[in-house]
Amino acid sequence: MSLKKTALLTLGLALIAVFGAFAQTDKLGKIDTLYAEPYQIDEKNWGINISLTNDEDIVGISVPLRFTSGKLRLVADSTIFKGGRTEHFRVKFARADTTIQSVTIGLIADIGVTVPPLKPGNGRIATIFVSSLDGDKIADLKVDTTTTNPGNTLQMVSPPVNEVIPVFIVKNTKK
Questions:
Q1: CA 84 – CA 18 distance, rounded (Å)
Q2: Greatest CA span in the chain, whole angstroms?
Q3: pLDDT tens digits for the chain (175 residues)?
Q4: Pairwise CA distance, residues 28 & 155, whole Å
Q5: How far apart are CA 155 and CA 163, in angstroms?
Q6: Residue 117 has what DSSP assignment?
Q7: Sign, Cα dihedral of 39, 42, 44, 45
Q8: Rounded CA separation 102/15 (Å)
Q9: Which of 33, 37, 68, 139 has a CA-to-CA distance to 168 between 20 and 30 Å?
Q10: Rounded CA separation 34/123 (Å)
């Protein structure tokens, strides 16, 4: 085998190993799916509905997202959980980081045993509201998952302590 073919084969195997490490995992059933659906509210404000389809009980969720719109500086103004599937969770937070234009959503059903887990199903778990820091018009909003400090990645926890990494899909919609 030539040196070029050996190098290409080695590179291909390395890429397979890397992508395999970041693959979705769900040892408890079907692969779950987390959806981000950005929508325009007006020229300067957007919302992002975060929805989840899961087939097992979930007691914890970490959703770090990054959003961009060209060179505009954006901020996650607020996040609501009311009316969503995780409204009953004891711990619900959204931490915005304007330096990397991101927001990290953290959800924990309960520290004890009094709050039930998220049951299998599908639907909205949160809505994030985004605006321009400079008050400029936002023509388009791109959303993707990311890693935020101190190592928050897209993942969920099923009882007792099983890691579930969902598929992440962005549904693009217009105003």
A1: 35
A2: 64
A3: 554 433 333 333 333 333 333 455 656 568 899 999 999 999 999 999 999 999 999 999 999 999 999 999 999 999 999 999 999 999 999 999 999 999 999 999 987 768 899 999 999 999 999 999 998 999 999 999 999 999 999 999 998 889 999 999 999 865 5
A4: 14
A5: 7
A6: P
A7: negative
A8: 27
A9: 139
A10: 10
DSSP state of 70: T
User: Which domains does the chain show, CATH number per domain?
Assistant: 28-170 (2.60.40.680)
CA–CA separation, 143 and 58 (whole Å): 24
Bridge partner residues of 2 (DSSP): none
Spatial separation of the C-alpha atoms in residues 138 and 65, rounded to whole Å: 18
Sole residue written with tokens 């084969």: 9
Spell out the residues 6+ positions from residue 101 whose beta carbon is closer than 8 angstroms to its own: 66, 67, 68, 73, 74, 75
- Amino acid occupying residue 155: Q
DSSP secondary-structure letter at 173? -
User: Which residues share a beta bridge with 157?
Assistant: 60, 163
For the beta carbon of residue 63, count every other beta carbon within 10 angstroms.
Answer: 26
Tokens representing residue 80 in the block: 């609501």
| Six-digit token string for 25 | 């995992």
d(CA 116, CA 164): 18
Helix (H) or strand (E) holding 101: none
